Amino acid sequence: MNKAFSLSALLLTFCILAGSTFSQPLPEPGDPENPSDIPEFYKSRLSDIEAELELLQKGKVERIAYSAGGLPLYAIFYGEKEDLNSQANYNSAVAARNPAFFAEKTSDTKPVVYFIGPVHGQEGEGISGLVNLLHIAETGSDYRGREWPELQAFFAEFRVIIVPSGNPDGRRRNPYDTFKGLPEEIMTKYGQGTQQDGTLWRWPGAKSLHPMKGDVGILGAYFNDNGINIMHDDFFDPMAAETKAIMQLAKEEAPDLSVSLHSCSCTPFVIQNSHAPLFMKKRIADFAQQLNQAFIAGDLPHRPENWGLSLEDDDPEFPPRASFNLVSALHHASGTMSFTFESPHGTLEDGTSYEELLDIQLVLYREIFSYIRDNRLIWEK
Ligand SMILES: [Zn+2]
């Protein structure tokens, strides 16, 4: 191998490596460009996660999986892991009439919260929120310089697990770092993807072909590079390494609460876990109302004052319509209080500002900690 060749090989390797991590495709001709006026504090890129990981002093980072496209899936941990004295898997422990056989959670153990960043790659609001949360854990301030002392203090009382992006493949394929100020239709095109003739798959049509292979023009950011929507993997035999890793953490950590962060062109809200037991649905409904009140008090986008979640287990008119999804699986594998949260995107239709998008995330996180502090389930033998 001559010198010139080895240098060009080196350069090529570098370009492939750099490209595989951070290169972002361009929108199709005629579609709006990626917004260029994104504020510094809005940290929705994979490179923002990588930069934050370099700054960690208190949190411990682990690579818990590689995505279908070869990207690392990270988890960051704060607080010592308690000895859960586990002697049975969760459902066997419940059948033995006490979840403490799966995980002992006495009042002198640290509660555990599990933040699962967007498994849908067009929903970058959760990445931005979690990167700012990491910064608060480390420094006390978000990337606007605003202090969150109450939020930072929770890191001393809890074990906290943060997966900043649940689907780095989808995030990498998304040409937009935000849909702020863009039409919902553009988010739909690149989020759920298109068919070969350019027809948009849309929601919920994008779930009707899974894995998303075959009649695919643009593979939506919903999916990993193998066409898997992690929200709707086969949880009894997972197809994606990302899903397995997210589930494995729940089984090892027995989180008191797990949240899956999503976004839509909407006002913010919690989605009920439609396949959780009634006692857990009631807790989720209570939390959803507490959170909506916090949005109202904070002068943030919110649902109506009297809004609330259903405790029905399906559509009574036309069942089945409520799927057993990632958050259902998390509950049944670990007993965790698990639900989906939907943030706005800031599209033309929902009109939310960058400031509000970040505040919605941080208020959600604060309310999650305070809810578990005040309403923890104690499991003891
Ligand atoms: Zn989503």
Mean pLDDT: 94
Total helical elements: 11
- Shape type: globular
Tally of separate domains: 1
**Helical content, roughly?**
25-40%
CATH superfamily membership: Zn peptidases
Content-based structural category: alpha/beta
Here the CATH topology equals Aminopeptidase
Low-confidence stretches: 1-20
Q: Could you give the order of the helices and strands?
A: HHEEHEHHEHHHEEHHEH
Major sheet description: 7 strands, mixed
Strand numbers in spatial order across the main sheet? 1-2-4-3-5-7-6
Give a count of the beta strands, DSSP E runs of length 2 or more.
7
Keywords: Carboxypeptidase, Hydrolase, Protease, Signal
Signal peptide: 1-23
Domain Peptidase M14: 61-184
GO molecular function, one term: carboxypeptidase activity
Structure, explained:
The protein is of the alpha/beta class and 381 residues long. The protein has one domain: 3-Layer(aba) Sandwich (Aminopeptidase). The chain is built from eleven helices and seven strands. A hairpin with a 5-residue loop joins strand 1 and strand 2. Helix 2 runs parallel beside helix 4 (125-139) and helix 4 (125-139) packs across helix 11. The chain is globular and about 65 Å long. The termini are far apart. Residues 1-20 have low confidence and may be disordered.
